């Protein structure tokens, strides 16, 4: 008996619709967030993540109304992210029905935000999202603004720092792999898992059940996040979990 | 049935409210401690930290302790930890002391203990219809490793108490039933029918 590895479908939301791009570009509409979330819960999803990719005030309002509709029928944890820049905005997301809030860009420009949110709501609510791009052997740089702006920060150093500040979990996206379905960046995943003492969610590149298996085994992640593998109906969450179970991974 | 959910000012109470309503309860979510004390059925939920939580309720410590002991109540996560005497998270702050023991920082390499873990339980109405080894959703860094009132256990680099009995009609759970899918809903349903019987 042991803690199960988590499988987390991710919904990128823009203008009330779930969209999916390749390498952070070329967005296509997929469906309604509340509807998709309930479908994934029924398939055995362990948690859900909603990201407002417009990261604007108007976008977040729309997202929170979707969160509210979703939370009425979803009985698994829900993480919400996109443009959250203050303790008050985090509070609104939690009140709308989110269990955790993911912070990315605003944590880089204002690291104090992580500590403030963790102090107010507990570190278990604060997910630090890191978008990392490979710059050399065993080296990755943190990007913000949906992958548009390089920061000069080393991803491993940044991960250690945000955990010290109070982040309770890291959502780690490889920008090189994101949306390609060619597999997670296992080296990046492993490096961050080893550098920090909080759970790490691997993200970006999961296209086949085997990719999720590798992220959770060789990569050592506590959870794997994926979007296109589920959205395009290639596999259900249940099929992916059955595969993982056959490979000896503990899943719910 | 009327259920009062204590609003401790942090975290998401939306799912808990919806879960209880789905089970047919009328739910009042309130920050007013007086209302908690009067409640027929009380739920102490929550994420958050032990110290600030206890500070909020310390003027009512004795009354709340008695309330939880005498009438149906369910503590969830930090709401379970508050029932004990003390916590390593805030060593200078006394808990409600309804249950003997001390909340400790979990002796694990990776914290929080976050995600779905299996629960083994003793025979009790709270777990009616829930198989041994069913998965529940946990998220915590502090917890109870032993308690006389323990009803259920989980394992995360060591044995942890997952549920305790806190009175004739009262319980507390370390996991989040409102986040634990249909098993969690079943547990809440069991609690509500126990509470119904208490009247």
Helix fraction bin of chain A? 25-40%
Mean pLDDT of chain A: 92
Largest sheet report of chain B = 9 strands, mixed
SS content category of chain B: alpha/beta
Query: Which range does the strand content of chain A fall in?
Result: 25-35%
CATH evolutionary superfamily of chain A: Aldolase class I
Write the element-wise H/E pattern of chain A from the N-terminal end onward.
Answer: EEEHEHEHEHHEEEHEHEHEHH
Radius of gyration of chain B: 15 Å
Number of domains of chain A: 1
Characterize the main sheet of chain A. 8 strands, parallel, barrel
Poorly predicted ranges of chain A (pLDDT <50, ≥5 residues)? none
Number of helices of chain A: 10
Assigned CATH architecture of chain A = Alpha-Beta Barrel
What general form of chain A does the structure show? globular
Oligomer: heterodimer
- How many extended strands of chain B? 12
N-C termini distance of chain A = 11 Å
The value of Rg of chain A in angstroms is 16 Å
Q: Which residues of chain B sit in consecutive blocks of at least 5 with pLDDT less than 50? A: none
CATH topology type of chain A: TIM Barrel
Tell me the strand percentage band of chain B: 25-35%
A few lines on this structure:
The complex is a heterodimer of chains A (252) and B (199). Chain A is α/β, with parallel strands linked by helices and 252 residues long. Helix content of chain A is 37%, strand content 29%.
